[in-house]
Amino acid sequence: MTGIVSAERGVGELPIVDALPEVVVVAFAAVTHLADPWFLFGLLAVGYWFAGDRLAASPRRAGATAIAVVTCAYAAVAVGKAWFAVPRPPGAMPPADVPTWLPELLSAWFEAQVLSDGFGFPSGHATGGAAAYGALALLYDRAWTARRRLAAAGVAAGAVAVSRVVIEVHYFVDVLAGVLVGVAVVAGGLWLAGDPRFRRGDASGPRGDPTAALDPTAAFLTAAAVSLVAAGVAVAAGHSGEVVEAGIGIATGVGGAIGWRLVDGDEPPVPVRIAIPALIVTGALWVGAYALSDSLAITVIATTVAVVAVVALPSLPDRIG
Fold this sequence. Notes:
Radius of gyration: 20 Å
Number of strands: 0
Keywords: Membrane, Transmembrane, Transmembrane helix
Number of domains: 1
Largest sheet: none
Pfam families: PAP2
InterPro entries: PAP2/HPO, PAP2/HPO_sf
Number of helices: 13
Shape: globular
Transmembrane segments: 23-50, 62-84, 119-138, 173-193, 214-237, 243-263, 270-290, 296-316
Domain Phosphatidic acid phosphatase type 2/haloperoxidase: 65-190
Mean pLDDT: 92
C-alpha cells in the first residue's frame, strides 16, 4: 500500500555507494547472480537430484523442501511488491553508468545487471538468497557443522543483499526487509513441511534425522495460495508485471505439489544419463515460460510442466526399469 513504505526511503546509502571504485561495483554486479532465480532454482534442483546421505538422512525430502521454501519466499515477495508498489532507486533507471574500461560483451552484461524495472520493496534477491541459503544450511544437516553451514549461508545471503544496494537497484531498507522475510519464510516453510526442529512436541521422524520427517506438500500449496493472493492484489492495482510473477508462483507451487505426489521421497540420486537431458528440457521450458510472458496461460502451463518434471524426476529410473 503506497504511503506505508515511502518512495524516498533511502537512509544515505546512495552517496556512499557512488563513491566506491568502479571495479568494486562490477564485482558486486557478479555477486548478485548468486540469488538470481535461475541460479537458485538450478542450484536447488541439482541438490535435490544428486545429494546423497552424506548431506542429509533423506536428501530427496530435504531437497524438495528447500525448493518449496524458496517458492514460498518468492510468493511473499510477489505480494509485497504488488501491495506496496514503490519504485526502485533512480540508479536502476536508464541510462546505465557503464565503466568505459569494460569490454563490449561485459558492458552489455553490466548494463543488464544495473538496470531493473518493476517495484523495489522488498528485494526479491535478498529474500530469495536468505531463504535459499538458510534452507540449504538447515536441511543438508550432515555437511560440516551447524555453525559453519549457517555462517556460510549468512555470508552468501549478506553478500547478495549488499550487492543489490551497491549496484543501486535497491535501497538498504528493501534488502533488510528481504532478508527478514527470507528468514521468516525458512522457519514457516520448515514448520509446514513438518520439520521436528520447528514443531515443539512433534514426535514425527527420528530426532537425530529431522529430514526423514519432511513432506513439502503443504509448503508448495501455501506458496501457490500466497501467489494467488499476489495475483489478486496485482490485478486489482493494475500491475501486469506482478500478475505474471504471481502466475509463475502459482504454477511452481502447484507443480511442486503434483511432482512430489509421484515420488516416494526416499529415492537414490538421479543418474547423470537421465539428469542431463531432463535439465535441458526443463531449462528450455523455463526459458520459454519467461520468453512468452505476454501469454500468461502459456507461461503458467510451461512452468507447471517444468516443475512437475524437476520434482518427479527421481522416480523416473524406477519407472523406466
